[in-house]
Each structure stands twice: as C-alpha cells, then as structure tokens.
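Hi support team,

I submitted a single chain yesterday and got back a structure, but I'm not sure I'm reading the token output correctly. Could someone confirm the output below corresponds to the sequence I sent? I've pasted both exactly as they appear in my results page.

Thanks,
R.
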Amino acid sequence: MAVAVMEPEQALNLSLAGCSTADVLSLLAAAEKDQLRGLDLSLLDGVVGEEVISQALHFTRLSGKQARFRLAHVDLGSGTDSEQRMFDLRAERELRNTERAVHVGKKSESAKQKDFAVSAQMRREATAGIEAADQRLAEIEAELHELEGKQVDFPWFRLFSQLQAQALNYLGHLDLSNCGLHATGIELLQKVLLDLEHRGDGFAVEELVLDGNDLGDAATVALASLIRLSSRIQVLRLRNIGITDGGFSQVISAIVGNKTLCLLDLRGNGLCTLENNKVAVQGLRRFNRLVQILVE
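Hi R., thanks for writing in. Yes, this is the structure output for that exact sequence:
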C-alpha cells in the first residue's frame, strides 16, 4: 500500500496510488485534510464505485482551495460495446431525422405539382419515407433508452455525474490518463465541464489530461466544442488518443476564438501526418498566437 504526501507546485497532494478501494476509503477518512489540495488514486485496485468517487470529490473540497485529482491507469469503461453502440445510435438518429426532414419537404412540394399523377406519386413516396424514418427512430429511441438506463452503473458515468452534482466544485486539475474512455464519455464530460464554468460559485476545471485514451476522431467534435465554448480551460493534454489528420484539424480549428487556452498537447498521435499538422498549426498562428501547441 503506497501512501505519500507530495508537494508539486506548492500544493500538497495525497498519493494513494495502487491502493485498494477499501484502503482508499479508510485512508481518506483518516487523512489530515486542511492542507491537502490534491489526490492521486492512480492504479486504483478495485472498482471505481459511487462511494470512492463521492469520498474523493469530498476530499478535494475540504481545503476550500482549487484542487487536483489524478485517476490515471484506472479502467473507467463499461467493459462492453455499450459506449460504441450508444455513439452509433445517436449518429444514426441524427441521420434519420435529416432524412425525415427531406421527406417532409418532398411531401410539401408534391402539393405544388400541377400534374395530379406526379403529385400523388410524390406524396406516396414521401409518406412512405416519413413512416419508415419514424419507425426506425422509434426503434433507436427504445434501444437508447435501455442503454442509457444501464450506463448509470458505468464508472465514467458515475464520476462525471457526481462531478456535476456537486453544489460547489473545487476540482481544477483532472487527470484521466489511460482510463479506457470512449467518445461517448467525452461527450458527457465536456457538458459537465462547461456547466461547472457557468456556475457563479466554486472553481472550473482549468487543466484536463486525457492522454492514452483511444478516443479517435469520434471524440474530436466534443473536444472541439469544449475548446470553442470554454472560457476557463488553460491546459488540455491529448497525447496518444488515436486521432487522424481529420480529428487533428477539428481540434485545431476550435482554437481560433479561444482566449484562455495556454497549452494543447497533441503529441504521440501516430495516425496523424506530422508535416500536415505543422502546416495546420502554422496557419492557426494568424488567429491565435497565445496558445502553445505540441505536436512532436
């Protein structure tokens, strides 16, 4: 059982890296908390349950100052393909809604046809298209409802939900390196972080580390939204998250209007073309000269 008090950047941090969940709960209850402003639960031995998350977040609030929380190398995934299935279903839902809107438009256009036979045929085809879309949308909603009911037991959902449910947040630095996160979890995380920013009290998360999570390009829409909409994020570390040139461009383009981001670390993304990325970063400099972007 490794227990240590460390002092990076003048802030005392309690390290319980490698401890079991039972030991973590016991040690958090016994720790002198008033001077501690950080907690490291990396390599946690056991399930990341509600009690562990609740006690960890409670611990970060006790100093009354901005705190650090590191939960690296801890599997927060569901262990199933549920996250991917939810992601695919939501993408299909958006597509089906678009298709339905097209059919509704065609049905409306049918009334403008002077040829009755042509109008009737257009109306029949459009109605059939609307009915098919509605049927598939109903199936999607039913399956999503079932999956979303199960996700409340997923570790990442527990963590992000409890983070949002706090009356006051004191967590300013969050390290979730190598946690088996999926793009579905990142969609929720970015909403939670933006919600915390918009509250009048407490702290916003200013540093987020997602290194080593195989997020892929699917997560870059949520990551770009976080960068684009955040007015508090200062450091974002995205090393080795499996993005390609397309995902890289998505993230980079979001920086144009951001005034607070100081460091964006995109190193280790081997599916990207280094030279192309350098060109993209150089082009960004016309709009944002403040942020440091690491690509190699």
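A quick pointer for reading it: Strands lie at 4-6, 12-15, 36-40, 67-70, 171-175, 207-209, 235-237, 263-265, 292-294. Let us know if anything else looks off.

Best,
Support desk
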